[in-house]
Model the fold of this input.
Amino acid sequence: MDEDFPEELLDTVKNFDKGIDELEKGFADLLAMNRTEFFEELDPLSRAKIDIVSLYSINSLFWMLMKTLGHNPQASDVKAELGRVRSAIARCKEIQDREKRGKVNQDAARRMVTSGLWKPGEQKLSMRLY
Done:
């Protein structure tokens, strides 16, 4: 490298370059595909996940660019945009978790509550209370 380049930053810059190369390899397959055809095969949640990952990656790359140019990304809109993307990730995860949750059998729950409220010696509660 250049003689003026600080020796203590050499490993950091090499790791940064290696990370950028790996990122390019990771996105190469996605970028080679026809986006329209690819998205037609996916369900809406998967489409949202891909869009969110793309947004987060682009904003993170812009954050790194600002840092390498010596600018403070904290003072820019990039931080707010990354926060927006994080909230979208949380919303996507919430939707995904909702699908995994078990369904409640309302008739069985109604019978359990009715049975729990009944006391011996009283007339049985009607199922029509609800």
